[in-house]
Amino acid sequence: MAAMAILLLAIAGIGLLTISDGLRLRTAVIKNEAAAMAAAEAGYEKAVFWMSQQPDMISALNDAQASGSLDFDGSSCDYSVKMSSFLGASPVYEVKSIGRSGRFERTVEVHLVQAIGGWAMGMCRVSTGGTSTVEVNFVNGEVIEMPIHINSYGDPKDKTRDIFLSGDPKFLRVVSMGESRYSSGGLDKYSSVMNVFDNGIYFNQPPSRINDAETVSKKITRFRDSTSASYIYTPNGPKTVSNPQNAVQMEFYVDGGVGKIRVTNNCSVRGFRQSSDSRTFDFKNTLADPDQFDRYYIYGYHVRSSSAASNGDIQTVKVEDTYVQQSFGGVKSQPGGQIYVNGNVIIGSGDSTLANANQVKGRITIVATGNIWIANSIQMDGDRAADGKPSETNPNALGLVAQGVVKVVDPGMSDYSYVDDTPVVNAAHTYVPIGIADNAKPAEIHKRHLPDPLVVEAGITVGGGGWGAENVLRNGYGGRKETSGVQDDLVLRGTLSEVCRSVVGVTGTDGFLKNYYLDERLLTGILPGDIWLRGKFVPLPAGWSDYRVAVNP
Question: Would the pLDDT of 45 be above 70?
Fold first, then answer.
């Protein structure tokens, strides 16, 4: 019996030792697998951080090392970033990270796109002088049907909120902030206004690079280099007006179901600039310093050569003729129209004889190294939804990108009461009317106004300041010409990125009342690289996968 007891105890001991060894081995396996997975995830985070630091991801994949490795205590990883495909016009990037620990590997593969908001701004402030800005409020009764992102202004943990509210504005989409919710001393800056953001507000978000001159310049250079030489313009207009600003006028229209543009090269804008900072809000920032503002020459009126029709300055272009297909790392984008202007652009027609004028059929982006001036309503051809926006299946879209400003002009500037030289026709140049004539008198053709409401449907990127209206009343000066009353309505259907806020109107006094709506179709872009400015990258739905591989010891 004693011998049997010893044998049984020995068998039990061996069994317990076997179980213990198995548990030890299983624990080691679990530990190694967990370490491999943690290393793989660390590589993914490092790759996404690298992506967030690049001025332009598409260029970065060609110019910089898009891979790396990390070493930890008992584990390591290798990671890489590459172009995968396109979702519409949105580049899809693949991040692959392989973590290793012991005899195990864990691989993480994620497909990401760059985040896009409806309305992104470098700062929620308006320029009032060379280096001075003033806060801009979202006001009571205002409805903002766009996601909003606002970069941090100054120290993210200072005591001042970077979004300014008056009353109870309605934010119908999510709001994201570059700043912290709390000050460095622990003060909750948002405790009294959190109930305003019914659809959520997020803090410490990566900034938009709209106020990074290097980023904007890289995108514009890449756009220029991929544009057909036939649609690259460097205007040099007649110097027969005061303060001439070289420009190209583009008049969109639809002819027989075909989208077309009447392009008039070598125009001269009669530039007008108030002499004092206290007169209007007509500023744009310098490219070298987004916090430095200069008063610029606004649109007064414009002229073209009297021989423009015979010398080739006027041409009719089919929108589809401007299409190109960009390719990055062997991955091709969808085709889209591109026009590049080394100068200023005037968008809109005042020609009452042009059928279906100011309608865009096709997908096209206009890039200007100077300003883009909006001279009439610009709307998409095709089907519309019940809310007035282009329907989800409408394929037509317009992108406007400027290193200067994108502004709605005041056609009333061509009236003698605004500018000191009424436009005239002579042997050298011809006056080109925009907007709508005040009356039918031929001698007063220069007396013009814009429609009410003025509707702009576009994805707008402003690298030199803000989107707004010129010649808006300030301190008793300025004063736009409205269709009727003291204010018209400005309807924007699209997306907007701007260095800073710009004045659209002074409530109840002058300019426009804002009506801004997100066009969801533009969230996948118009052309590759035209509005991709956020430093945030998000996985696509079902875009994350991970798997394990056991390697030989």
Answer: yes
